[in-house]
Amino acid sequence: MKHSEKTSDLAIKGMHCGSCINKVTNALTPFAETVSVSLNPPVAKLKNTTASIAQINKALASTGDYKASKLIVTNITEAPVITNDKKPWLATYQPLFLIVGYILMTTLALNLAQASFNTERWMMHFMAGFFLVFSFFKMLNIKAFASSYAMYDLLAIRCKAYGFVYPFIELALGLAYLLGIAPQITNTATLVIMGFSSLGVIRAVMNKQKIRCACLGAIFELPMSTITIIEDLLMAGMAAWMLI
């Protein structure tokens, strides 16, 4: 009697690059005859496994910030069906647009309520809101943010500790803009930090790396794209404008 072969399809959360694929593959290899892992979509296929989700996730946790879910057993002779979860462009970036929109609306309202509208004052308030809100999302899971940031930032790649420090840098910049502390120093620091940060983003986009953007930490699954470049260069541009 022919032995029935089965595969188990698992959705893997936390993968961002080829290195992640290797780590996940190595962690899952002991649990199956063969293991196949893809990044887009983030799926692992295990042939003839008897491991439970708990066992698999324990192995994944020991090698990185990964988590498996949706264990679906299918007959290996059937054509594998992978649902295309790719969202429309607008839906993908909706969280980012909403957050920036709320910051923009709030800061405009605050400054329009003044006797006269001052562009530089509005910029300082906008940048304060931007840095404070974005640092908040990063701090919700600093470890996951640092891991994602180290995939593309030129300094975090060489010094992972920088990823743990960066949210506090944004927090400090946000408070400095809000309180109007040393504008020249604050704007110079923003120009240098955001300008340097954009270099890693530009390189990742040009190399077509399919990795997660860490601008909103690990809370939202935002892909790296030109939107991230615009975001960094916009902040650097505002700082440069106020320095002139």
Descriptive report:
The chain has 244 residues and is of the alpha+beta class. It is built from ten helices and six strands, in the order βαββαβαααααααββα. The chain has a four-stranded antiparallel β-sheet, covered by helices on one side. Strands 5-6 form a two-stranded antiparallel ribbon. Helix 4 packs antiparallel against helix 5 and helix 5 packs antiparallel against helix 8. It starts with 5 loop residues before the first strand and ends with a helix. Residues 76-85 have low confidence and may be disordered.
Task: Give the fraction of residues assigned to helices.
Answer: 55-70%
What is the CA-atom radius of gyration, in angstroms? 22 Å
Mean of pLDDT: 85
Number of helices: 10
Largest sheet: 4 strands, antiparallel
What amount of the residues lies in strands? 5-15%
The number of domains is 2
Distance between the termini: 81 Å
Number of strands: 6
Strand order of the largest sheet: 2-3-1-4
| Element-level helix/strand string | EHEEHEHHHHHHHEEH
Query: Ranges with pLDDT <50 over ≥5 residues?
Result: 76-85
Structural class: alpha+beta
